[in-house]
Design goal:
By secondary structure, the protein is mainly alpha-helical. Helix content is about 55%, strand content about 5%. It has one domain (about 5-85, about 125-160): Winged helix-like DNA-binding domain superfamily/Winged helix DNA-binding domain (Arc Repressor Mutant, subunit A, Orthogonal Bundle). Strands 1-2 form a two-stranded antiparallel sheet. A hairpin with a 5-residue loop joins β1 and β2 (about 65).
Length: about 160
């Protein structure tokens, strides 16, 4: 899976809203400056998050954006789907409908496993988890395994340079 800039920015914007200490709506410019997100790009993202029911906007001098529901009820997957669509599609098709001729006939199973793996992380991590720096143990365990295997894979290459 490739995490697009749009998805990264959308999650960061949601985190900024969740971390707002006084629960007052934040202006787009505040979110943009705090997270170093281009303001015009953020405008599009916020509109998509609003259409998905993740954020709400308030007009007026004290207006701005806030989360539309509690941060613990918004998963990272929710935010990514709002701006990028399904987590893992192949050629813009659902993985459930794929069928390939031999020898690739088992490949749809792999794509289904990829989607399930993504879901097992992105649907279990909430915006509140990220703000609190309190990730589910399954996620921290996977991250630790990644660090370890990456170091094993690339550590030797760095030592030989």
């Amino acid at each position: 899976m490739r995490v697009s800039a749009k998805a990264d920015y959308a999650v960061r914007a949601a985190l900024e809203l969740a971390a707002a200490s006084d629960a007052r709506p934040l202006k787009r410019e505040q979110i943009s400056a705090a997270q170093k997100i281009p303001s015009k790009f953020l405008e599009t993202i916020m509109l998509e998050l609003k259409h998905a029911g993740i954020v709400k906007s308030t007009r007026g001098a004290v207006g701005g954006y806030s989360l539309a529901r509690p941060a613990q009820d918004i998963s990272v997957a929710d935010v990514i789907r709002a701006v990028d669509g399904p987590l893992a599609d192949v050629h813009d098709e659902s993985v459930r409908g794929l069928a390939y001729p031999a020898p690739a006939e088992s490949l749809p199973e792999v794509w289904m496993a990829v989607r399930a793996s993504l879901r097992s992380v992105l649907e279990t991590v909430s915006i509140a988890d990220l703000v609190a720096h309190d990730l589910p143990s399954e996620v921290t365990d996977l991250a630790a395994t990644y660090r370890e295997t990456t170091e094993q894979r690339y550590g030797d290459q760095r030592a030989h340079r």
